[in-house]
Specification:
Number of strands: 3
Strand content: 15-25%
Strand order of the largest sheet: 1-2-3
Oligomer: single chain
Distance between the termini: 83 Å
Structural class: alpha+beta
Largest sheet: 3 strands, antiparallel
Helix content: 40-55%
């Protein structure tokens, strides 16, 4: 049973000749519709490998339409629209707080934002002597953008982002406590 196909697109010229594309295309079914995309290769083997990868992504739930073209800046636009839709008045404040994220992720595809890139961002911010609370605030906004993108079907999955542990000097255990009479 074939659930996808590899083919070369053809079209008819005004003089009646039929022309064939040098590149292969793939077609597969996703959410009840046939999706067709260019394999961007003239190798049938590579086109079949792309089709196999797409079908595996669909099978595991790791596929979202056009996630290859969805970038960090698109996530910012989604969050801005969400803020406007909900009537939140703090967008100017958020815009100021996510500027350091733009330095790390501006030209990054959203699907490529993983824990390794997030850890690089955290390391860069620590080297810049940013406060831990500031870093956690940035991570909170990044987490919101990623979750919103998943919720709207722009991303298939988002990494789990934990807050960076804070070091507080106010935490005192019972062994550290010294009573005044001793």
């Amino acid at each position: 049973m074939a659930v996808g196909r590899v083919f070369k697109r053809t079209w008819k010229l005004p003089d009646g000749m039929i022309k064939e594309s040098p590149n292969y295309s793939i077609a597969y079914w996703f959410r009840g519709r046939e999706r067709v995309e260019s394999a961007k290769t003239d190798s049938e083997t590579r086109a079949r490998a792309l089709l196999r990868r797409r079908l595996e992504e669909i099978g595991t739930g790791a596929y979202a339409l056009r996630q290859e073209k969805f970038c960090y800046t698109d996530m910012v636009d989604l969050m801005k629209a969400d803020y406007k839709r909900k009537g939140n008045r703090s967008w100017e404040d958020v815009e100021h707080k996510i500027k350091p994220l733009a330095v790390s992720f501006e030209f990054t595809r959203a699907a490529d934002i993983d824990l390794a890139k997030i850890n690089k961002h955290i390391d860069r911010r620590i080297e810049e002597k940013a406060a831990i609370a500031t870093i956690n605030g940035e991570l909170r906004y990044l987490r919101r953008m990623l979750r919103l993108s998943c919720k709207l079907g722009k991303l298939a999955a988002a990494p789990v982002i934990d807050s960076y542990p804070t070091r507080t000097s106010a935490t005192i255990t019972s062994k550290q406590w010294i009573s005044p009479g001793c």
